[in-house]
């Protein structure tokens, strides 16, 4: 059994502060200040730290005279220590608030507690017995006095056998005092407590080099810790090296140390460490250390790349990748969706950003030719008991059998809690379907939704998949098998699953498969069965006529039918089918709530994607003056002579491109032939017409493009990001490209045409917010023709 301990959520942090401060304005100021520092905001999920922060900021708002509120962890704990010293001075020593708060007695107490904190931190002890106190030169009576005076730092409790035990109020307080002790010892005596062979350096010539080695040894020691027990200690120690923080401890510190040059050398040393191979936890802590040293240069550099939208164009160093991980993991936004292509559609990016994948609820990972190394990286996230991942989208990856086998082992892990797996356009083999069947049959599998769209599903593969779907252990609720091409050759294997005693399927998508009425008949028999629990069925674009509607109506009218939603759009139900289904909606014996039949008509009975063919018309008001129209405005050629087109605000003035008149909002398909260098694109109407490269299709967020040259399709573009694609160079492949867009579904696909076969090149998955207009950019000596 695993017990998960959670701290404050963001709303709970604010609720706590509002309850602590009755003054709404003061509470609001404190909340606003905490939000300005990601370090403080993250730490405030710890209730004790939230209390410490509130205590310090309350005192600061009452007593400060100008100046900034504490922003770093070290500043906050220094102020907290000072507040406790003030309380002791006034409450126990009878002094005034204006008196110096560091008396010799207070200094001795803090120095003793610091030594205890450090010695026991090294041993991993959080609770201290009399023997531990004696080792550090503290008597049991003195410890009781300390706990009575510094009540908010150190406390006394009764152990199992009623003996006295002591502890700090929180581990972070122990870590801070331990760092303070190590710092004081070095500043006052030159002794480095972090070295195994401790040496003392007081010589002014060697002092600076000793300081440098002191902080570097602290970094190395923390990195060598197998469990990270010195991570927070290191952040405090480096924070204490700043002169500004040492000034805050004036009275406790009798002398200061560490120059700005030493601080810069420490910063540089940490940056060098970030270029080494470190765990994500250690890397993130080093960025917190840089924050304590007031150096945010690496983070700001990556933030600028992100703001510019050009991150994928840079070759990042390991330190820069680490900075990106740090930024994403400490982002105020919830780590809900991780989309790899926002950063770089490469395997290196995937492997570098695995900590972010692990912390996300949903991950979209599309990498051309994902290797076994990449598969193993993603699998390590799935196997982790600390992973937050619940939905994984691996669509548009050509997964080899060996790589898929690696995934399957992870998906069957008892720690894997993945609920949704999308494998759209993954070129799955028969062996992959066998592996999937094994996953679905696994007792430990948590999968509830599976997307296998745009993969060939032959008879044998369908039977293999059906075995897993019928398993007693299968928990699948939703299955997508759209665009699987060969479903018309399958017998009843996938359909019989619906009437299986153990089937939990509630949703089934068979859209864009050439089922015909015969397969709909087989499907209807299963829907009618006593064990079928199906609630949503999509048969959009499946070549169904009125005959198929009769079979479906029979299934829907049967008593056990649970079906509530049926999509028959892009079919030809005819008058009889429409009448039958519409009447059924009013029948109390049917449970159907939603029926979609539009668009409908005989034109949708054409096989494949060509049923969605649309006739494009070039908008002559958009054509650049270096583009010549011919063949009844269906061919565009790049020429050197300026064409005599009338002035128009919609005309592209610099870019050699044009748009079509057609505003696309549904499903549309068209083919074009090209020669030379062209961009085959879709764009929002509002794309800029005046300007250079940023107006080129695919080089902005308003358009999507496939670039083709003399050798064939090369890469796709969107928002100035390029993704390379592989394309057949066979002589049987024509210079013809097909484009298919499903605007409501948010998919845009490019295909190379070979006879009657479509070879998939790339699919964009996005959300289209406006109608799309086909467009073309034409290079020197090049042309493009509408087919």
From TrEMBL:
SMART domains: LRR_RI, PRY, SPRY. Its main location: cytoplasm. Residues 596-787 form the B30.2/SPRY domain. It is found in: Cytoplasm. PROSITE patterns: B302_SPRY. GO terms for molecular function: ATP binding. This is B30.2/SPRY domain-containing protein. InterPro entries: B30.2/SPRY, B30.2/SPRY_sf, Butyrophylin_SPRY, ConA-like_dom_sf, LRR_dom_sf, NLR, NLRP_HD2, NOD1/2_WH. Keywords: ATP-binding, Cytoplasm, Leucine-rich repeat, Nucleotide-binding, Repeat. One of its GO terms (cellular component) is cytoplasm. Pfam families: NLRC4_HD2 (PF17776), PRY (PF13765), SPRY (PF00622), WHD_NOD2 (PF17779).
